[in-house]
Amino acid sequence: MTDREWVKLEQDGAILTITLNQPQRRNPISENRVIDALCAAFEGADRDIGVRCVILTGAGSAFSSGGDLKQMKAGTGGLKAENPVQTRRNYKYGIQRLPLMFQALEIPVIAAINGAAIGAGCDLACMCDIRIAAQSAKFAESFVKLGIIAGDGGAWLLPRIIGFSKATELALTGEMIGAQEALAIGLVARVVPDGELMAAARMVAEKIAANPPHAVRMTKRLLREGQTTDLKNSLEMAAAMQSLAHATRDNDEAIDAFTEKRSPNFTGE
């Protein structure tokens, strides 16, 4: 399997589907070649204004198993090295690139969670903007059961999505939860029958893609920055971005279409 095949790309109109493509291994994401392929795919989509939404899913029965347990021991070529200093570098220049990359993206990303999202796989889902789960999906922030911690940003991500108390419970117990509980605690936005997962994700993606792409991307940027900034700085950024939004042709097209009672045609200009 070539590096390009680790991650499968399929574009249909303005929507790009990125599929983790190692079903026989339950789609681990801890190897550098997988991380490189994911970063290249997402960063390429982010640069292309013609791509208006990305759907991330997994091939086979799992969304992602996170790390490959066979590579958890030193000397196996995984994140753990004989020298702790090198282990730190392996994380920094390996899997920690993913949360930083996702946080910087402006293109909206929908996680279509088709099965188990375990450890770093659960955190990968949390890196996305919207999470839609199949009925059979399962989630576990299970690092503690392996005697390790979430080295990929899970302790930062999870509390921001489901709140501190529930995130702490899941992280300290390492217990697995099903799709319906994930919905109840706000980890996912909706749960659908397994056979309807991609159609449901596509429906949401099409609703996003139907809007002016610059406004969509700037809205996402404001939401992401709002996770760490204060109100004053958020308002300052909003004012600057609004001046850009008002200058787009799509803003004029939206107003014209509304007043003329017709469907708008947004071009990304």
Model description:
The chain has helices spanning 3-6, 32-47, 84-92, 97-104, 120-127, 154-162, 164-173, 179-184, 197-209, 213-225, 231-246, 249-259; strands at residues 7-12, 15-20, 53-58, 62-64, 109-113, 116-118, 130-134, 138-140, 176-178, 190-192. It has 269 residues and is of the alpha/beta class. It has two domains: 3-209, 2-enoyl-CoA Hydratase, Chain A, domain 1, CATH 3.90.226.10; 213-259, Lyase 2-enoyl-coa Hydratase, Chain  A, domain 2 (Orthogonal Bundle). Strands 1-2-3-5-7-10 form a six-stranded mixed sheet, with helices on both faces. The chain has a four-stranded mixed sheet with strand order 4-6-8-9.
Q: What's this entry about, in short?
A:
This protein is α/β, with parallel strands linked by helices.
Structural class designation:
alpha/beta
- Major beta-sheet overview: 6 strands, mixed
So what's the CATH class of the largest domain? Alpha Beta
Name the poorly predicted regions. none
Tell me the distance between the termini: 40 Å
SSE topology string: HEEHEEHHEEHEEHHEHEHHHH
What is the assigned CATH homologous superfamily of the largest domain? 2-enoyl-CoA Hydratase, Chain A, domain 1
The number of E-state strands comes to 10
